[in-house]
Amino acid sequence: MDFTKLTIREINKNLKEKKFSASELAGFFIGEIEKKDKDIKAFLSNDFALAKKQAQGVDEKIKAGEEISMLAGVPAAIKDNILIQGMKATASSKMLENYVATYDATVIEKLKSLDTVFLGKTNMDEFAMGSSTENSAFFKTKPKDLSKVPGGSSGGSAAAVAAGEAVFALGSDTGGSIRQPASFCGVVGLKPTYGAVSRYGLIAMASSLDQIGPFAKTADDARVVFEAIKGKDKRDATSVNYLDRLQEKGLKGLKVGIPKEYFIDGMDKEVERLIKAEIKKMEDAGAKIEEISLPHTKSALSVYYILMPAEVSSNMARYDGIKYGFSTHGQNSGDLLSVYLNSRAEGLGAEVKRRIMLGTYVLSAGYYDAYYKRAQQVRTKITDDFKKAFEKVDIIATPTSPTTAFAFGEKTADPLSMYLADIFTVPINLAGVPAISIPCGDVKSMPVGLQLIAPWFYEETLFKAGEEYEAIR
Ligand code: GLN
User: Fold this and answer.
1) Predicted model pTM
2) Domain holding 124: CATH number?
3) pLDDT digits (tens, 9 = 90+) for 286-333
4) Residue 259 is assigned to a structural domain of this protein
5) 399 lines ligand 1 (CB under 6 A)
């Protein structure tokens, strides 16, 4: 049996029927990581002893005839900005190189209670800032069989699932960091409704945009993981009671909006052609395709690159060389201020510093109204665009990214060109709606992702449409 091909439901069935044990399954994935990951480098750290122990626990339950959960014994990879007690959580930053988490993130607590097996922590752009995982302070991740970047910032999680090193993975998405690497690596990635999943124990980047979500092989696997991690958490005041929306609709009769602003000059023509052909398949399956307009899309990237750095600059203030993390204290006998300055200068990478400076600038007294306040106003308009669109259509379909994965080094010298990689994903975070990227084919042997966007709390519409699309793809 090829364990890398099994869906979560298939694994569950096989475990219950004792076709294989959780220990065998964990052993297989540990073997795959040992074999492949010296080239791929999806993982920053592993705790195989913990994984084996977790798997044994599941086997004992099965032996004792106890009920097991759908995710019991399922091996998962976790982005390194999500805390697992007792394991390192570096967020790919020198600042946190030796930081060991003292508690579990809520999502981890939930998965642990379901007996999920944790294989390790995955590589990412430093503090989740980037689109290629090249901003990791430690090393680059190279997806299997692909010569290009895995995307980012959750590149390690995407590459791990794509390479069959894990059944699913968790990532975080602030402006596209789950969907864009999912698209580049040819796997499914979900950014949930803002507030649907607790951010407690997620190392904060931009708190009004950050959401944790799954990478998986299929839309249904993403559904299983999402169902397991969602829900209100009293430790995250922005988490909400998830409103389950009854969704009977599959593709038949589904009103799919195609925003004209997402088919722009400068996007890869072959990607555009493929996306349109796949949307046509959805139409042939009974969906009603309608052109719509999201008129403020053109401002989304500018708004994102004002609001996100503003929040970054405030969230990064805690890394001061005193409270925790990297410190130059003791190296040079300077005063307190020089400990702050030197620790941050040495501990943080260039992209993080760039954003702290941008954010501090847009929040400064003289510029606050011109930048931050104005951007907040335009954010409301972007949200209103989606509200209006969803009065007419059930979901919106777009490309996840204007291109397939780019080459290593292609955009690192020009931050603006890197920022443009997020053009189709950031509006979704600004509005807080859910979106999923589903693999929809290849262009020159490189995967392409189709992004489906739903109204707040309509994740189930995404899963249903995604599943039916997977069947006709
Ligand atoms: N690539 C985007 C950025 O650099 C998104 C990052 C993210 O979603 N964490 O900000």
Assistant:
1) 0.97
2) 3.90.1300.10
3) 999 999 999 999 999 999 999 999 999 999 999 999 988 999 987 766
4) no
5) no
